[in-house]
Amino acid sequence: MFDCGEGCPSELSISELCAVDHLFFSHFHADHVSGFDTFLRCNYGRTDRPNHIWGPPNSCEILHHRFQGFWWNLAETGTWRIHSIEQDRVRTIRLENSELFSIGNPEEDSECQTIILETDAYTVEAMLLNHRGPSVAYLVKEKPRFNMNMSRLSELGLKPSSVDPQFEGEQ
After folding, report:
1. What are phi and psi of 106, to 5 degrees?
2. Contact 84, 59 (CB under 8 A)
3. Could you tell me which residues come within 8 angstroms of residue 21 by beta carbon, excluding any fewer than 6 positions away?
4. Is the pLDDT of residue 132 over 90?
5. Is CB count within 10 Å lower at the N or C end of the chain?
6. CA 101 – CA 105 distance, rounded (Å)
7. So what's the pLDDT on residue 79?
8. 113, 84 in Cβ contact below 8 A?
9. Would you give the end-to-end CA distance of the chain in angstroms?
10. How, if at all, do strands 79-85 and 51-55 pair?
11. pLDDT, tens only, 94-108
12. Are 167 and 160 in contact (CB under 8 A)?
């Protein structure tokens, strides 16, 4: 999810909000973050995987303060990783619900490269900008994939291309 303005979470179902693993903030103007409380409420106690938030320099401090603005007494588990994209590094802190999100546990910094996230399906690139303050532009690139209708190929008397690694060696 990219930015989280007031109307953003209301456009998604709760199950869709809970499926978001990575939230990317471009900057912290109010119109880009005013829906964050709804997102947080849907995901704060998630136990099957951590939540990741990415943002411009000082994201760790800004969001840690945001988490501390609530009374945490309804869930005891949940992990959040906040990533501040800085000029020369990505700084990460871990916030734990079991600690009432009171401690920003520093994790090892990583060298800031263009690609900040890579999955099997896509990459996310980041570039720092100035929007009357620090801001980040993101570029999502889907990785190539092959979709073949095997029954239609068979009907035509064709075999899958060896270009698809799944069928390597077949002609």
Report:
1. -70, 140
2. yes
3. 49, 51, 52
4. no
5. C
6. 10
7. 92
8. no
9. 41
10. parallel
11. 999 889 899 999 999
12. yes
Does the pLDDT at position 49 exceed 70?
A: yes
> At 36, is the pLDDT very low, low, confident or very high (cuts 50, 70, 90)?
very high
Q: How many residues does the chain have?
A: 171
Q: Is 31 a catalytic residue?
A: yes
Q: What is the pLDDT of residue 145?
A: 80
CA torsion sign for 35, 17, 110, 122 is negative
Instruction: Check residue 95 and report its DSSP letter.
Output: E
Half-sphere exposure for 144 (CA within 13 Å, toward CB): 4
pTM above 0.85, yes or no: no
Task: Give 140's strand partners.
Answer: 124
At 84 the three-state DSSP class reads: strand
In one-letter notation, the amino acid at residue 127 is M
Domain map (residue ranges) of the chain: 9-144
For residue 125, pLDDT beyond 60: yes
Q: Can you state the percent helix, strand and coil of the chain, rounding each to 5?
A: 25, 30, 45
Q: Which of 3, 21, 31, 120 is the catalytic position?
A: 31
